[in-house]
Each structure stands twice: as C-alpha cells, then as structure tokens.
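Here is a complete protein record:
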Amino acid sequence: MKLIHSRRSLALAAALLVAALPRAHDCWLQPSSFRPALKQRVDVSVQVGVAWQGEEQVRNPDRIFRLARIDANGERPLPGFDRRAPAGLMNASVAGPAILVYQTNSAFLELLPDKFASYLEEEGLERIAAERAKLGEAEKPAREYYKRCAKALVCVDGRSGVEFTKSVGLDLELVPLVDPHAERPEGKLAVQLLFDGKPLEGALVVAQPKSAPDKAQKLRSDAQGKVEFTGVGADVWLVKSVHMQRSKNPGAEWQSYWAALTFELLAATPAK
C-alpha cells in the first residue's frame, strides 16, 4: 500500500508540475543587494517563477551561454560553483554602475495544445496563436526552444549612471532610456525592447513591483520598440517581455526569447 501511495503522490506531483509549466517561465536575476557597499560580496541568484514568487536555480554550466558583470573595468564572467546556488558571485570592487547579465542557450519544451494556448494568451503572443491556427497546428502539441535573457542593475556604493541606458547585446533586451534611479517626473520610465539589437514592435512589456505584483502595468511596444510606464517609484521592479518566432531548428516549431530587467528604487530623500 505504501508503494502504491508513493506512486500516486509522484504522479500527482508530476501532473501539478506539468500544469504549472506555462506559468513558471519568468526568469530574473536577484542580487543579494542592488546597492552593495564597496568591496561587499554579492550573491547573484537566478530565480524562476511567477509574480515574484521564484525558486532559486543552481549554477548549470550546460545552460549558461553568458553570465557576467559589466562595470567601469569592462565585462568579466561571474564565478560560481557548478550545481550549487547562487549561480554567480560578485565582489563589488568598483564604485559605480554595474550590470549583471545572464543568457542561456536554447532549451526544449513541449506542451499540449491547451497549455500552449494558455501560455500564448498570458504572454501576449496572440499572433502566434493566429499563425498556429492558420497552419492547422492549433490542436497539435507545440514544440519550442526557449532562451532566457536577464539583467540586473546594481549601484555599487550607491552610484548609478547613464551606463544603465546602454545595450549589453542580449538576444532580447530591455534597455532603460533614462537611468531608473535618476529623478523622473511622475515616476515615468521609458524602456526600449531590442531583438537582435533592433527595436521590436508590438511586444507586450510588463512592469511588476515586488511589493504588489498584482498591480503590474502592461503596455505594447511602439514602432521604435518603446514603452513608457508611469508611477515607477520606490520598490524592487521586474520589467519583462517575451518574443517568439518560427524556429529554424527542425526539432521544434517555435523559438522564444524571455527578457527580464530587475532594479531597486529607493524612496526620495526629503530636502533639508
């Protein structure tokens, strides 16, 4: 009886995992501090989950295409211990802006038609659903390769700068058009979405505060790949977007790219 119960438990767990897959795609970088002191050690965690509820991932060398820091000294790989968390370690050795960068190679995923349709709807990929219908694939399982493209903005010794407004060359990348940490009237924050270095139009871009993930803002990128959010104030923020296109790899019909940008904003200090 114990064996049967164990098998049922495993089967139930597997079913729940499969059911959760479409909602478990978000991937972001979460440093132990977005504002470390000079010489402070920073643990760089890779989180996968939804609505800021993430599960920390171990460092997997088979998936890492790029895991690095970019600061005044240029780009350097982030060290770490394979098969252990955190995925990366950083010594805050240079005062000023530091950008943490993480990109994976492609991984494979296959979903049943209803799960894939739900996932497309949730991520604003209606054009893919329409294309599947046009190709007669709507009732077929979907095979997909996906890449994660995440970065985090770190202010070493409390210092930020225009460096945060520069592209770092991720396949799919969210680039602030102004330093998020600078004073911004009405909390306006303009962000540009780039795919292969070029503006991406019509993509759903979401800005989600950690303290109230249910109050996420959702906008579509314009012809220049830009969106402008308002009320982006004191909190830890996740800005994210997903792009999908027909795969050039015969092993799957689709290739997706998942972009994430994380940063922390502090409350303004009252003037003395």
